[in-house]
Specification:
The complex is a heterotetramer, with two copies of chain A and two copies of chain C.
Chain A (H helix, E strand, L loop, with lengths): L1 E6 L2 H6 L3 E5 L6 H11 L11 E4 L2 E2 L11 E5 L6
Chain C lengths: L8 E2 L7 E5 L2 H4 L9 E11 L5 H6 L9 E8 L3 E2 L2 E2 L2 E6 L1 H18 L4 E7 L1 E4 L3 E9 L2 H18 L2 E6 L1
Parallel strand pairs in C: 3-8
Antiparallel strand pairs in C: 1-3, 2-3, 4-10, 5-6, 7-9, 7-11, 8-10
Helix pairs in contact in C: 3-4
The chains are: A alpha+beta, C alpha+beta.
Chain lengths: 81, 81, 169, 169
Amino acid sequence: MKIAVHFYSYYKDLSGSAETTETLPPGSTIADLLKQLMARFPELGAMQNSTLVAVGVDYQGRGYLLKEGDEVSLFPPVQGG
Amino acid sequence: MKIAVHFYSYYKDLSGSAETTETLPPGSTIADLLKQLMARFPELGAMQNSTLVAVGVDYQGRGYLLKEGDEVSLFPPVQGG
Amino acid sequence: MKYRSSRRCKADDGIHDLRFAIYDLRANALLAPSFTGHVVVKRQLTITLEPIDEAALLTKRKISDDMGAVVRFLGVVRRTEEERTIKAIEYEAFHRMVEHQFKLLFDEMEKSWPIESVRLVHRIGVVRVNEPSLWVEVVAPHRGEAFAACQWLIDELKRVVPIWKKPFA
Amino acid sequence: MKYRSSRRCKADDGIHDLRFAIYDLRANALLAPSFTGHVVVKRQLTITLEPIDEAALLTKRKISDDMGAVVRFLGVVRRTEEERTIKAIEYEAFHRMVEHQFKLLFDEMEKSWPIESVRLVHRIGVVRVNEPSLWVEVVAPHRGEAFAACQWLIDELKRVVPIWKKPFA
């Protein structure tokens, strides 16, 4: 299945792009997606533990089961206000 | 010695006046003044424990030693804001 | 300043604006005697590239006769950010998620405190030092709940609302 | 309404207005990195029979580039006072003592938090339901200290400042 991935804040700079698409086998979790992304964008690796992950507009944990069509967003800790 | 006493808030209504003067022997404390005032204004008696006492513009406790010329103010708990 | 083109997003009078809420037990413990169990909580969220106009905001909200406390907070860009001197901060937002996360926070506020109104304006794009980036207002019957709700909202905003800073020296 | 004739008392730009303060150790623990050990804390106390004009208050205070947080509180007369419906509250003040007690509170605030400015307006005389009787503003480098100082000031005001309420049905 194909998963659209969006980067925000300095993750955009680190990855060199605002979005990408990953192909994953069915049954993959966010943890699997992150592993695959870190291999492709080693610059993001150091950030892995503090990375926030949303599917659509809701936060999801590493165990979330991805499904076709999910839009995943990755970003560093938020800093609004 | 003569001590000027001012009443605020509903103490004015209870005592029927905004101020009075009490004559006390030297060495008297605020506790002595209150005892004398309660005898003269029994309406204030029930309030005795919650009565706040200031000499000039500072709060003073019951043991404060009064001196000639002190201006004492008696009032109920404050309610500003 | 490459995020400068972020689209303007105004949620005023939109999805978050007016709805009913039934207070839960926690909220009821705090209620004023005249509280009837549910109220209309006015909500307004504004994410904008424009400067925050406090004077205009003040003219736009009347409070009801049962409200005794209004707490307002203004967050202003400081000259120092992580011990460096800066000229401005650029705020970037993931807009759709910002709106959704604020909706969740407003829902939670309604359940936790008997507030009548909450308004929040967050400026995005470039905000210079000494200019406000955030304005929050909470209206409630008593000051304790107004302060608590306002501080909670700001703390949560800084925890979950996807907005990021980029300082400019 | 027999207290209506209370004199007008304005302490603006008067005794409380501007002075130096050396922060104690407790305050220093909270200080921003750029803090130099003493600052001019702007103080303004207004006790007035006039309605509180928020818009005018907002135009009168600039904050410095090191300040990141402004907390404002508005206390409004509610329709119910001790479960009775009222039309207004009349506030009576022991003016000289009010000014002195606020000075002591402002001194204590300066020692406890690194605030840049505190302004407080208390209306006295008859204040009708839905009208503000109290306006407070605290400016500080960070929101934690601004909220804490503002709440502390209001709590203390309600404990020690000789102002009393008389509700009118």
